[in-house]
Amino acid sequence: MTLEKTGGLAALICAGTYLFGFAFLIKWLVPLGFGTPTIDAAAVVQFTAQQPGLMVLFNSVIYILNGFALAVLVVALHTSLRVQAPAWAAVTQGIGFIWVGLVLGAGMIANVAVEEVSGLAAADPVGAAELWRILRAVELGLGGGNEIVGGVWILCVSGVAYKSGNFGLLTAGLGSITGLGGALTLIPSIGETAGVVFGLGGILWFVAVGVRLFRTARRPV
């Protein structure tokens, strides 16, 4: 399989992890207040202690699988862009790898939180809830709720790819909206809404990029 096809598959995997995350949130976590200021930490701890494997699966898909697929996509896009824009391609690769590291770090923190609060929940539920809040804050700071680095990467890739002719207007436009949504998660008053824009826009952008890379791979040399 060529790097373009591998990158296209990686982009579709990234989109799939976002879809999985949204579905899981709606079914299991939204009733616990996930994504709102009124999140019920005690209920989350109780759910985590009862279903640790389910939470590890959730974290591993949305963070770990996503992070490794993203790393492949970063390399594939860098390779695609470096002929027309070598300097900017290097910039996008650097930012992309920073995002990969943050996503993987958030996933490891989230899985550590599952292990720690599950073990503490029965003996000290109040302490387990407080520990979960602390580890959750670290997770969100790394990348679970703060999407600035991802937003900047998508903006940069979309801009460079459009200017160099690698992306069409639709893909670049999706990237601009998605990237802006990620950057705006910095503002607390609109962070939740911006995060939804980033997540939903990211699904469409990853699909568009995946299709683009598969089409590029089919071009005759």
Write the layout of secondary structure elements.
Elements: H1 3-29, H2 41-50, H3 52-81, H4 86-120, H5 125-144, H6 148-163, H7 169-183, H8 191-217
Helix pairs in contact: 1-3, 1-8, 2-3, 2-4, 2-5, 3-4, 4-5, 4-6, 6-7, 7-8
Write structural notes for this entry.
This protein has 221 residues and is an all-alpha fold. The chain has one domain. Helices cover 81% and strands 0% of the residues. The chain contains 8 helices and no strands. The protein has helices spanning 3-29, 41-50, 52-81, 86-120, 125-144, 148-163, 169-183, 191-217. Helix 2 crosses helix 4 (86-120). The mean pLDDT is 94.
Continuous helix count = 8
Strand content: under 5%
Taking the alpha carbons of the first and last residues, their distance comes to 15 Å
Q: Level of helix content?
A: over 70%
Low-confidence stretches: none
Number of strands: 0
| Total discrete domains | 1
- What would you call the shape? elongated
Order of helices and strands: HHHHHHHH
CA-atom Rg in angstroms: 18 Å
- Profile the largest sheet: none
- Structural class designation: mainly alpha
Mean pLDDT, nearest integer? 94
